[in-house]
Specification:
The structure is a homotetramer. Chain A contains nine helices and no strands. Chain A has helices at about 5-25, 30-35, 40-45, 50-60, 75-90, 95-105, 110-135, 145-160, 170-184. Chains A and B meet through helix 1, helix 6, helix 7, helix 8 and helix 9 of A and helix 1, helix 6, helix 7, helix 8 and helix 9 of B. The structure holds a DNA duplex (31 and 31 nucleotides).
Amino acid sequence: MAGARRERDIHAATLELLTEVGYDGLTIEGVAARSGVNKTTIYRWWPSKDALLGSAMVEADVLAIRLPDTGSLRGDLESLLRQIAALLTGPDTSPVVTALLGAATHRPELGEVVRRFFADRLGRELPMFERAVRRGELRDGVDPATVMDLLAGAVWVRALLRGQPPRPAYVRETVDLVLRGCTS
Amino acid sequence: MAGARRERDIHAATLELLTEVGYDGLTIEGVAARSGVNKTTIYRWWPSKDALLGSAMVEADVLAIRLPDTGSLRGDLESLLRQIAALLTGPDTSPVVTALLGAATHRPELGEVVRRFFADRLGRELPMFERAVRRGELRDGVDPATVMDLLAGAVWVRALLRGQPPRPAYVRETVDLVLRGCTS
Amino acid sequence: MAGARRERDIHAATLELLTEVGYDGLTIEGVAARSGVNKTTIYRWWPSKDALLGSAMVEADVLAIRLPDTGSLRGDLESLLRQIAALLTGPDTSPVVTALLGAATHRPELGEVVRRFFADRLGRELPMFERAVRRGELRDGVDPATVMDLLAGAVWVRALLRGQPPRPAYVRETVDLVLRGCTS
Amino acid sequence: MAGARRERDIHAATLELLTEVGYDGLTIEGVAARSGVNKTTIYRWWPSKDALLGSAMVEADVLAIRLPDTGSLRGDLESLLRQIAALLTGPDTSPVVTALLGAATHRPELGEVVRRFFADRLGRELPMFERAVRRGELRDGVDPATVMDLLAGAVWVRALLRGQPPRPAYVRETVDLVLRGCTS
DNA sequence: CTCTAACCGAGACGGTACGTCGTGTCTTCTT
DNA sequence: AAGAAGACACGACGTACCGTCTCGGTTAGAG
């Protein structure tokens, strides 16, 4: 049963190299060399580069988001969005996150990791919306998932497809627009 | 200046292979074999797989969107979103589009293609918003780019990150939510 | 000192595999799998594939020759040669024997096994020649070792280097030629 | 059509390494490194280690034998045998020759090389026997192939299986014995 | 209607990484 | 004491593409 003895070393090397050389520059041989482990050892435990990346990311909790509780939905959403924007643009996190999300579109293995993560995060965000409903900040019939799609999607499009880091003003603007739609 | 005599063949083979075997399965050698052209001929004209892909996609106008004019902003936006959703999920288009957008995150060359495309499309969408302003469907101070970020981003997140094809009801819901925010 | 408890199983598996897949196809891992023994167990008792092969062959007495006593040197030699030819060409024995003799040329360990075997067999053949001397079938000054070199060598060259199985007529011819030289 | 540009380098490296590290120590990667050629280049032209070895040996004419014409069959045969003995025991040639002959027993590809060589050499030796017949040194009904089998086989058995280099006295003894059988 | 420049095919190559197999070693746990 | 179980470093395997180079042909438009 057991598992790889040097798993931590291997995961660490994987993420280091990912940030340094990017998804395509990342090779199993490179990870082996960096982690001081033999190539075959990696193949023993992970069937593919993607599987390795996936487990490294899960273990490292790369996409971790602190769930805010600021007292208002507006504050909570702005906090969330700023964190997402930081993940997508921060020098440390951006290579890893974009690699993951980029590859997820054509790599079933990583797609699954991402889907699981999004489902899980949505579950953890629900209380935020429940608090908002109790405070009367949200009219009935608004699906939290849709709200998160809109806001996270906007930041994502801005940062990665338009190539414009989402600044605080932009975050406020999008949250404001969506919140108006959620109350009116 | 000129250009490759067999450019059309090569572009066609590129897109065919892209849909068949995906971004990573796509190789210059494969394109050469499929298009009946020698490998060196491809290298003569395109410095990289991404450059080739980029030019093939531009030429094929893969991301083409018909700009609607339905008489109402709601109708226009729903039409746009449905088209985007179709691109992201259609059996013919999805492999190409996701390959492009996935690779764009870590491939400067393709990122540039995407950014240019988005900027251009936004420009072509502006008249739609100007008509809406004239019709009084949009309060002042709403940035069309932000609206498109929100809506396109939501569809994108749904389709590619959550793995749930955006159905018509979802499209209506998001447009409704955003439009409420645009008028209130 | 002791010895492996499962030595017989291991030896059996070794020879089976040798006949099935040949010298180069024979692997320690294969022997372990076939004999139901752990790889480390084999390494505990034999330092190398060759050592294992050597001991398996010695134990199995693969090169065993019945020493004939037909009443005449001609009959004795023909009997011996036929046995050698059978060893070199028989479907069961040939893979083992040729593996051993082939490897002996560049594997000290197996070379030693072979040399010991040849020396031993010569010793057991000597009485045959002594009987012949007593019967006056052999002039003085003929070295039995040379006679055996000539005859065994001829069969060996035929069978393995020329790729022509030595037929009975051939055996008779060579024995006749050498015997003429031994009496004249 | 063409062929490998660096064929000579590769063949040279092959034979050098064969003498230095033996048949089993010889690797394609080693040959590539020694010859300054890339591994794939070797695989482009030779499907296996054996094929490479075979062509290297054919080209190098490793088993070359000068055909003597001393005026007597005895002289011719002694010359031949001394050459064979030298091939089998000389510091330069022995590794190559024993590797070839050892591997020939279980490597079809090399077996074919050896068989072709022996057939060819026998053809070139025939005139020697025809001269002997004309001189009356050979009775009718003696097959030259058998004579060569006996003599070459004896030297071979001595050198490689008994591990005793065949000295001149031994060569004379075997030739004498066989020649007696050929005339009586 | 040629001639010349642009383009192409072919063949060979050095190179990186792949994913696999087998080696021989080591430690720990089980009879 | 012997063996089973599992992890490992290591070396080589044979393969796929990469990107580059040289050489010799083909094509097609400008003179």
